[in-house]
Write the structure tokens for this entry.
Amino acid sequence: MKIALFTGNYNHIADGVSLTLNRLVAFLEKMGLEVIVFGPSVFNPPVNHSGTLEEVPSIPAIGRPEYRISLTMGQHAKKVLDDFNPDIIHIATPDILGLLALRYAKKNDIPAVSTYHTHFSSYLRYYGFDILEPLLWKYLKWFYTNCEELYVPSDSMKQVLEDEGIQCDIKIWERGIETDKFSDSYRSSSWRSENGFEDHKPIILFVSRLVWEKGLKTVIDTYKRFKEDAHWCIVGDGPALADMEKEMPKAVFTGKLSGVELSTAYASSDVFFFPSDTETFGNVTLEALASGLPAVVADATGSKSLVTDGVNGKIVPPDDAEGFAKALGEICLSTNLRKQMASNALESAKPYSWDLVLQKMVTFYGQILNSDL
């Protein structure tokens, strides 16, 4: 089986989308499938990508130059695609490149499937483009209706798309977790003391790229309303870092962490806080749960599919800083509640094995082609 994967992000930004797709490609190749990835790239990219990447022409995104916008497939990439003669075209981003890939699939009678990684409509309000939302949904409805199947990471995301009138066959393709990498076994008292955290105070942890669409205004507003005796730890980097440091003077900013350092930061904290309402799944929420942290999250797609209110965390309406402060305070003030929720968090993360999740995609491909994989 030969898969042509088209994406707007594969190795030039180390975010949830690129890391998920790289993991998928590595698994597909391990299973004996042939894969070529088509997408933009940059000189000296931060991600050491899996598999073969065929770079397409692109330009920096306006206002967000770290992202790339694909302009066309390009003649060389088109020839590579023709020679590859894929059995399935998998589109991860409904951008210009994704549109060209969909047209190519239709023209050549190749089944096209898509994965839904980014909730684009929820991003518009952060950049003053709310007026374009109806037009965007009209395009997405047309785009996905022309795909054989659409794979979304959560039931809540599926419901949103169905409510917007998207009528193709929508199936759930969750995200996974490395339980050996994210675990409460990484908890470290020395990490706490090295970062100036007192043992008797709980640590509220936020992990994300520091961009405004991740709910950073709500993080800041909640911090200002929070009255309990606790530490705040912000893990991540991005264009909003300076603003957050100014608005949250007592918080500890670690910068971007990875590997054991990230695992230790999760496990050594006490409560995870993630008010973003732009997620399709909530990878960082799952990482926190697997590390034994109760999670206080927005009542929005993605995270609310992982958190059961009052069991392994709290769910609060988006933008409700007062509600978030109250929920965080309840967990921080009660050691017994925190311990019980931490135990429940560990249990709730166990079903999300990456091998099972990735095998599910191989099964989807096989069903499309009536092949036993």
In short: The longest helix spans residues 16-30. The chain has a mean pLDDT of 92. The domain at 184-349 is CATH 3.40.50.2000 (Rossmann fold).
